[in-house]
């Protein structure tokens, strides 16, 4: 039995916490209202996973094996600081969006405490205590130095035995880049167009932009020393197809008037490009325009009629 | 007295036709419902200009001195063809948006028949027969070869004596570029952000993009052999300020589900860049995303809350 902390138990963190709690010790740390609801009625999961789960919500004072970090990526620094203060130095596995989380963890705690990860499970927060498991997908984890360590095997095994299909990668940074590129295109475009993921594929101009954004991402990754092939374009189209009825997390944030992760996804790609003396104008434009969208009160009527592309 | 045809008498064309009809012979050619309403009740102008005007709506069979072309820029070719067929070769003054109108006229009719022009009058179509004159501004006209000809002086004089403040330019192509760059930024951003012109200036990210789009336009103009200084950024900000409560023509089209002029403004800048082997990624992105907006049915709720930039 492993001992996990889920730090930032929103939709995804709660889903992981619920599944892991069936065979492991799990401490959920999240918003007060959500935790209170779980203490009262348990953690209810609907959708692909169905059940009521009972993770811990209070620290028993003993040591943990791993923190699974699932906060928004703009909160990573703050989260690591809080974890350090309360629990001391424990390995942290980031399952967040964005490109810099495991680097921030490594800088703050030391390299050996950082573990990289991505997941393509989809989950949405229905109400305090209740999560919707929208879509299943792989989870990929890996040590930053690429080694297949004892702990990474233990984590993967714990995840797998709880129904979280998990693969160990020797190139986790590359996997993180791939996910960031996919997100940069799908989240970026659906947020600007205010459409569902699948709608991008129904319009040839949007589809063309999806391709251009991916290719820009490939070039920036290459400048950073990470080779990602053009098949990422196809993969992005596949993800948009597979999640066609979903509203991307960035658009969800935008519609709720919340801060988005555009700075940590598209903005980070643009910053890395600059660092290497190249440009990423599309990612830069997307970053600025989505930040502008957060700041401008939109009081005009919506587009009412459809025109063929 | 001069004899004018207004071809494509929408909001702007009707305004010019109304004003010119007070001292000149004006034939209005426009949509059937609009023309029918004018025949019945006259052409009513509200706003900065107030009155009922009586331009002609039927050809008296005599020759005209000038066609003033005010169709949408994606209809220029079709319009010139119709003009040629019905009235033969007459000089055509384009007061349209976009970068290629006078070139299309020159290619189709011969160089000496094309006259370039821009105007910053604002007008909106209220209903058939009724136009709102939203804002006054300069009109600039010029021969493509830069010469101050007899006809250009006559046209400017006719315009001025009817209250249309008009300047003759020896560098009309440069003026057309300036207006296109201003439009590329203001129309482009307000269409994506679905906001009024002035809202761009209230948000630092949107304002930064406005600047970047202008600078990209300056670079493409330079590649085309036209020197436009960085003061165009300031000028664009001024235009957005002066028209802060206006909904840009591109956004109006988008909101009505009509075809926009993005291809003739931003798209043309991107195409000219390509022709010279440079890139205009922002204008290209804007072109694609606005064309995607026309094609995607937006059925999501609007952004509801405001966040500081």
How would you describe what is shown here?
2 copies of one chain form a homodimer. Chain A has 2 domains: 3-170, 3-Layer(aba) Sandwich (Rossmann fold); 173-293, N-(1-d-carboxylethyl)-l-norvaline Dehydrogenase, domain 2. The longest helix of chain A has 22 residues, at 172-193. Chain A has helices spanning 11-20, 32-41, 76-87, 101-109, 150-161, 172-193, 204-223, 231-242, 249-255, 266-275, 281-295, and strands at residues 3-7, 25-29, 43-47, 51-53, 66-69, 92-94, 114-119, 122-127, 130-135, 139-143, 166-168. The first copy, chain A, has 309 residues and is of the alpha/beta class. The radius of gyration of chain A is 19 Å and the shape is globular. Residues 297-309 of chain A have low confidence and may be disordered. In chain A, α5 (150-161) links the parallel β10 (139-143) and β11 (166-168). Chain A contains 11 helices and 11 strands. Chains A and B meet through α6, α7, α9 and α11 of A and α6, α7, α9 and α11 of B.
Short description:
Two copies of one chain form a homodimer. By secondary structure, chain A is of the alpha/beta class.
Shape of chain A: globular
Separation of termini of chain A?
Answer: 55 Å
Secondary structure class of chain A reads alpha/beta
The overall pLDDT of chain A, averaged over residues, is 94
Largest sheet of chain A: 7 strands, mixed
Which CATH class of the largest domain in chain A is shown?
Alpha Beta
- CATH architecture annotation name of the largest domain in chain A: 3-Layer(aba) Sandwich
- Amount of helix of chain A: 40-55%
Largest interface: A-B, 47 and 47 residues
Indicate the multimeric state: homodimer
Uncertain runs of chain A = 297-309
Number of strands of chain A: 11
Secondary-structure element pattern of chain A, one letter each: EHEHEEEHEHEEEEHEHHHHHH
Enter the CATH topology name of the largest domain in chain A: Rossmann fold
- The neighbouring-strand order within the major sheet of chain A is 2-1-5-6-7-10-11
Rg from Cα of chain A: 19 Å
How much beta of chain A, percentage-wise?
A: 15-25%
CATH superfamily of the largest domain in chain A: NAD(P)-binding Rossmann-like Domain
Tally of discrete structural domains of chain A = 2
Question: What is the tally of helical segments of chain A?
Answer: 11
């Amino acid at each position: 039995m492993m001992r996990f902390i889920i730090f930032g138990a929103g939709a995804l963190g709660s889903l992981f916490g619920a599944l892991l709690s069936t065979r492991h010790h799990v401490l959920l740390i999240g918003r007060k209202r959500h935790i209170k609801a779980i203490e009262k009625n348990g953690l209810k999961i609907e959708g692909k996973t169905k059940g009521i789960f009972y993770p811990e919500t209070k620290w028993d004072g003993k040591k943990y094996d791993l923190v699974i970090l699932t906060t928004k990526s703009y909160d990573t620094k703050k989260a690591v600081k809080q974890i350090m203060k309360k629990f001391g130095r424990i390995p942290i596995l980031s399952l967040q969006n964005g490109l810099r989380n495991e680097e921030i963890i490594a800088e703050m705690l030391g390299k050996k405490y950082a573990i990289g990860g991505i997941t393509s499970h989809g989950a949405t927060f229905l109400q305090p205590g209740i999560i919707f498991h929208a879509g299943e997908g792989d989870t990929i984890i890996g040590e930053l130095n690429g080694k297949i360590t004892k702990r990474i095997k233990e984590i993967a095994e714990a995840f797998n035995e709880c129904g979280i299909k998990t693969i160990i990668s020797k190139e986790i940074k590359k996997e993180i880049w791939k996910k960031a590129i996919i997100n940069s295109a799908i989240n970026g475009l659906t947020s600007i167009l205010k459409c569902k993921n699948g709608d991008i594929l129904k319009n040839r101009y949007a589809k063309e932009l999806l391709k251009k954004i991916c290719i820009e991402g490939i070039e920036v990754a290459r400048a950073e020393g990470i080779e990602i092939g053009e098949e990422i374009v196809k993969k992005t189209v596949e993800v948009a197809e597979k999640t066609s009825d979903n509203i991307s997390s960035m658009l969800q944030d935008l519609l709720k008037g919340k801060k988005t992760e555009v700075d940590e996804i598209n903005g980070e790609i643009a910053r890395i490009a600059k660092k290497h003396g190249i440009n990423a104008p599309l990612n830069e434009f997307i970053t600025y325009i989505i930040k502008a969208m957060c700041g401008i009160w939109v009081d005009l009527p919506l587009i009412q009629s459809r025109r063929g592309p």
